[in-house]
Amino acid sequence: MEHTQSRDACWHSRHHSKMAVCIAVIAKENYPLYIRSVPVQNELKFHYTVHTSLDVVEEKISAVGKAMADQRELYLGLLYPTEDYKVYGYVTNSKVKFVIVVDSSNTSLRDNEIRSMFRKLHNSFTDVMCNPFYNPGDTIQSKAFDSMVSAMMVQAS
Amino acid sequence: MAQCVQSVQEFIQDSFVPMVAVLCSEDAEKVTRKNNLNFSELLRPFCRLTSEGHMRDPNNQVQVVKNLRISVNNVVTRPSVPASGVPGHAHRRLLSEVVLTCQPAEGGVANVITAGDYDLNISATTPWFEAYRESFLQSMPASDHEFLNHYLACLLVVSSSEAVPVEKFLKLSQEQHRIQHSGEYTNPKWFIPNTLKYYVLLHDMSQGDEQRADSVYEDMKQRYGAQGCYLLKVNSRTAAAGADEQIPDPWSQYLHKSSLQSQDQYEDPAPVVVNDTAVENNVGGTSEVDGHDSEEKDGVLVNSLDNTHPLQLDTPSDPPGSLDALRAVAVETKPPPVATGMAAATSHGACLTLNDHDRIRLFIQEFTFRGLLPHIEKNIRQLNDQLVSRKGLSRSLFSATKKWFGGGKVPEKSIAELKNTSGLLYPPEAPELQIRKMADLCFLVQLYDLAYSCYHTAKKDFLSDQAMLYAAGALEMAAVSAFLQVGAPRPYPAHYMDTAIQTYRDVSMNMVLAERCALLSAEVLKSQAKYSDAATLLIKMTSEDSDLRSALLLEQAAHCFINMRNPMVRKFAFHMILAGHRFSKAGQKRHALRCYCQAMQVYKGKGWSLAEDHINFTIGRQSFTLRQPENAVTAFRHILTNDKNPITTLKQPFHNVALPQLPLPCINSSATRVYFGHERRLAEGEKQAATHVSLDQEFDRDLAAMWQDLEEQVVAAAKRGVVPATFQPTQCCLNSQTDNLRFPLAVVEEPIIVEVVFRNPLKVPLVLSDLTLLWKFTLKDFNRPQPQEDSVGDVVAISNEKDARLKLLPHQTGQLNILGLVYNLASTSSTGDTTINTAEGTSVRGRQDLEIQGPRLNQTKEEKTSVSHGPDRRLDPTITPPMPLLEVFFLQFPTALLCGEIRKAYVEFCNVSRVTLCGLRVASTHPDFFTFGSSSLATPLTPLSPTSFENCSAYKTLATPPGVSGAGTGGKGVTEIPLGEGTLKPGESTQLPLWLRGPDQEGVHEIHFLFYYESAEKGGKIRVLRHTVFICASRSLSVRATACRSNTLPEEEERKEGRNSSMLVFVDVENINSSEAGVREFHIAQVSSSSKQWRLHKCINPAEDKESLFSLMPVFNFCFSVPSKAVEKYTFADLSLGNELIITSTTPCADFFFRRCQPLESLRLPVAMETQGRHSRSQGVGHGDGAKDIAGVVRKCNEVELDIIILWKAFVVEDNKQVILEGQLHVALQTIDKEACSMTQKEEAQEMVLLKFKPELPPPMTRPSMEQLSHLIKTNLHYPESYSHPFNQKSLCMVPVTLTLSNCSLAQVDVIIDLRHKTTSPESLEVHGSFTWLGQTQFKLQLRAQEVMRVQLRACFLHAGVYNLGTPRVFAKLADQGAMCETSQQTATPALIIIINST
Question: Which residues fall in a compositionally biased region of kind Basic and acidic residues (chain B) (predicted)?
């Protein structure tokens, strides 16, 4: 478990220019459809972070009443901040969750940017779903989706 | 946070209790020592007061003190925790020991918490945490900013056996005074300057004089007052009497910990000697003293004490993951040696009766209510008075001074500045401290209202003074007392706590205090169900400095998450993992494992494979270090098999060897292949064995279908045209794609080879050795008894790479089940030679079962909707009795041939079994490729050596009688092999000649042979042998032939013989082999024909030399006349162009011809029907079947069924030697005037087949085409070629012309001859002079079938010249087709006549 080393600033500062450090798509049943993170050596940690964030997502969804569920905004905003990261959430109407983890030090990212990232992610995800060869519930292995995610994770323009 | 045994109130109350010190004389110590206890220990179980006490507050109100506990301790002059607030090493180790020894009970009660779709088994209580908390709070060092754990009173204990007890009391009293006031010791700390001294006279009932004790007590009462002293009588039981009496031992639960504690408090091994009089008091550890006493009699104890030296026992926390930790853990997991020593040596309170227990209880009660509480009450009142009197003055004075000297405002100061002031110390008598002191006193005696107001006041003072540490302490206690106030007049000020914690941690850097504060606050928050806040608080307290604390707090935080109203399962799991990680860093491996296991419940099987694998890996590693290999294996196995379906580990009881199931390497069980069959000789000298099937071949679905088709054909041929319903294709090699529903058949004494595919998911190389198959065998007799053999099978490992092939040789018939594999598993220690390492390295012998899941069923609706799998019987062969076994070898089998080339080879059939075989047949995809010679003739003709017959013509080696050829015997591609007597006896072999003819199309041909044979015994099973050859065919000659109707009328004599017409056949032969370097020239050796109607008559060859060389002239024309001959049998007519004549009908040539025809025959099916129709008509049966017939009739007359066979020789230079190759080409002529080519098939094959979505329209055959109808009548003009006529004599020249009409068709034809018809074609207009026909110019005739009719005509010419007589138009129609128009018949060639003027 690398958690305790998380405050190591070594790679922390190296990657701060990235837009997102981890992007995940979680199925309705709360298993991962897609997880990608930038520093590969910390992959496990991001898996844990994303998994843990689901509790907050569920809390936020359940906070909205049943009647209001239709009007619920898909974007959930900041789920919780950790020492090094900010975790944002987004839930589609079909209860598919998107989670984006951003480096805390990246102050240039405003809420609007996060929103647009989620929108892009949602659109691309819809494209994946529309693929007749995609079996709903399978992990996403679309190249188009992959490259879109990569674009969100590389250098901010 | 987990549930606790104590309530919050109890917990907080017990955390802060009045402290009482003990000073004990040596003699008194000896008295208690009899019970293996020192005095403070003796009292400890009785320190909680069961009855209520009463006291008055400063306002003279009586307050009830309930459930009070006091803490009695020996005076220890060394601080247990350094003042810095960083706990010492020993202290940490103590806590670690406490946590370590408190493990959850095996199979303890676990709550099932259901959250969403998670069902979690979580232990509700965490006793290790409570134990930790208790010892942590008890070992809190006394600090200057608070007084809660300062000593309020001191018990001075003297034994009654002392010579002068009063003197001793005096001494002890002085000692206490010295410790408190001399300034020599900073520890222990005392609450108030005039500490309550309580004099206790300890009397040993078993020894001393009770009278004397009483009198001394009386004396004491005089001296110290009745409320200041006590006579405690103990040890009323004699050692002998008490042996059988069972007395409860209330000490054990207290002493285990405390003994550790007291021992651990010495970091320095040297005994602490304060003063010669106070030695005993300062020695804390019972066992140590005990050790001194019992040194001689109890050697074991001494040893154990030596071993348990604090520094020696020290186990450094291992870096997680190191396997070397195992040794250290082994030490750790042993029960602490101290405890064993204690347990072995003592039971406590051996000399105490229940009466004594009561006396002690009473003593405590007396002391507390009579001594301690009044003392506290008095002090509170004093302090209160003091404060009230001083209040007005001091407050203003202080604030004034502050204003004068401090200047600026206070609260704006930054933390950095505050840090500087945090060191601020008040003098002991400072008024601020007096308030605090009073608050603490009130708090200890449960006057929480008063305490709160005091704390609150103190807090304000401290804050204004920037004494942050003091302020934090006041804040903390203010919050606690606010919480504890009865009826809760004000809400719990959680922010007080937060500020306090922050101050302790960040400003004072005192983690111990911060931790205490956090523990209290968390407990309070938990009681108010503010789990989220509690969790945040606890998580904040985790830090790098203490892994144990972090672990425990994280675990509590995790419990907070799960206890929330909406349980946060994932957060729980995550924090459990973090806790587990910290536990393992702290060396608490069992707790770590427990945490990981609890977290595992959340991650298990939810698709978070990375996390799951990580947890499994950690669990495996921890289990391994804790010596729980089974759990480790389970966990590790999960990692290896995570991606697959959960494997069902079936315990099979019939295995006498209970070997462990190994998870490595992974076996791809569905890829297992099973091969049934013996090891065949691949080649023997020049012989080449049939390829058959082997494990090295990849499975090909198309090929398998092809083989099955061939097998069906051959079986059908063998069973007289019917494929039995029970027919199943033979499968020699079973894999995942074959049909494995039936039990495969294996033959006794023929090996079964199992190929197992291994996959190593690890990056570590694995070495497998001694692989064997596990199998089960059920003996079964088939019809007759089998000789009993001892060995049923043996197993040999063949290869060891990625797939292993294991062989099993059955010796008896029965049912075999292959169950699994047994092998030794080892990992290579180095990259060196693996075979050497296996011998040295440790290896595990284990097994893995082979379980193959059958294909998914998808037939019925139930099967479609559910997921069910069919059986897979690949590994369950039935062993059948012996069967014949054929081996086939080929000799001189070529690999490359020219198209049409004839080559001779030999084939050898060999029966290697002990059973006679018969019914040998062969089916092939290319039946025209080969033909067999007769065995009877073959035997003498078999060449002695292949080379001697090398240049011998294939046509000359053997004359096969035409009837022998197998063309008529069976199905399309099946040939019966002419064995000598139809059978092949065991061990016998036969050689047969085999002619091969190069395929007509160039390219590489894959030719498959399927040899079929059966057992000669009744009901013998069938077997097959496969063979595949590749032949490369290269182009040789191209033959084109055209048949034309000859215009000449047949000669009279010929007509008599029945030949009524003739044809010309033009044959063009082209050498298309120009590219081939080896072939020098082709010779046409012979042209033969084969037809039922026609035969080649003579060669009308325009070329001069008879042997034509094609190398010079690529295209060559022949012209043959072919007289018609009506014979019902195929007739061969040979026309040799060379020197020798080959009798086609008696050579393989005919065989190949027939074989080649067979596929054509099927194409000609409608024609064949027509042929029959013709026969029936010729017999006069009638011809009424309408329009359908017409087409046939019409077509018939255009048809020729003539096959031309060209035999050629090619001179080829091979290795500087000239070799003559021979070959034959076939051209099938079907229609007059239509060119046929020897290579037509290829062109046809290239034609695109249009996709048709509608059913085909009925073929338009019913209406014969105009072109076909124009061939009904053949016309011929007979006239003199030149005619002399004297025009000057007679102007009109009349020439008789005979028009011969011959009906080509087989039906009656109406003919109209029109002589006047003027052609409109331009060429006929060109004729210079015209002539006219004389006489009848129109005839209407009817011609019977094949009738020849002559019509006499006269032509009249006016001038000399050349005229074309071919003007008559002939129209014909079939007689019985009234509705049909007459069709113009084809005109004959221009018939020129020369009229000469003969003047």
Answer: 859-875
